Amino acid sequence: MKEHKPNFVAGLEILPFQDENLPIHEVITVKGLIKFAMYGKTSEFRVRTFFTKEPETLAWIDSFSNDDVFWDIGANIGCYSLYAARNGIQVCAFEPSPVNFWLLSKNIGLNKFGNIVSYPFALSNENSIVRWDPNSSPGSADNQLSETKQATDPTAIQVYSIDQLIAMNAAPFPTHIKIDVDGIEPLIVAGAINTLADNRLQSLMIEANENDLDRLSQIKAVLKGKGFKDPISRHEPYFDENYYLPYANFLFRRE
């Protein structure tokens, strides 16, 4: 039987488009496979460097217990969220970038994990709706909220503080938090004062610029006041001669 086409498409040429079936790559971990959909060179880079870019983050996640709850703030396309979920950890993945959230959600669906929830909003020290200008490149890390919001920025996004989310029962209480947001780390920490004081929170890993002493001092002062030890910092030698040189992961554990 000949397919009947509605009149509104009759005579119109089908336009070029990107097939929705994105390339899928399987990463083999000791706990099993993780599937990733890739869209653009930056997302491919993240999957290709899964084991080599931040091995300290993978080792930290390996130290979690099965009854832990991991908050991944700045989850991007989900590399570390999915690794924790594959390890049997309950995961809350926060990613405000629309294109990254799309890939994050697609990756969660590919793996059919029932122990991970994704949240399409940002975290800071306030509860509000702000304007921002997200980088539209899939997998990009340059999607942070500015401390100075511009009314002309094209995207409006919901922002919460960690303490407010806990008070709302919007997510289970975290035992471990990763903050990788490239810019407003002190504001996120400032919005988590009550959470930081709770002994159920065991550790935080925060990526920060080692040369930005003011921001680091703010973060360390708050965490030390809430019972966390001086951090262990690490960045891989691979990044010593390029853009990533001043950036390191700072791991704070409770005394």
UniProtKB/TrEMBL annotation:
<dbReference type="GO" id="GO:0008168">
    <property type="term" value="F:methyltransferase activity"/>
</dbReference>
<dbReference type="GO" id="GO:0032259">
    <property type="term" value="P:methylation"/>
</dbReference>
<dbReference type="InterPro" id="IPR006342">
    <property type="entry name" value="FkbM_mtfrase"/>
</dbReference>
<feature type="domain" description="Methyltransferase FkbM">
    <location>
        <begin position="72"/>
        <end position="212"/>
    </location>
</feature>
<dbReference type="InterPro" id="IPR052514">
    <property type="entry name" value="SAM-dependent_MTase"/>
</dbReference>
<dbReference type="Pfam" id="PF05050">
    <property type="entry name" value="Methyltransf_21"/>
</dbReference>
<dbReference type="InterPro" id="IPR029063">
    <property type="entry name" value="SAM-dependent_MTases_sf"/>
</dbReference>
<protein>
    <submittedName>
        <fullName>FkbM family methyltransferase</fullName>
    </submittedName>
</protein>
<keyword id="KW-0808">Transferase</keyword>
<keyword id="KW-0489">Methyltransferase</keyword>
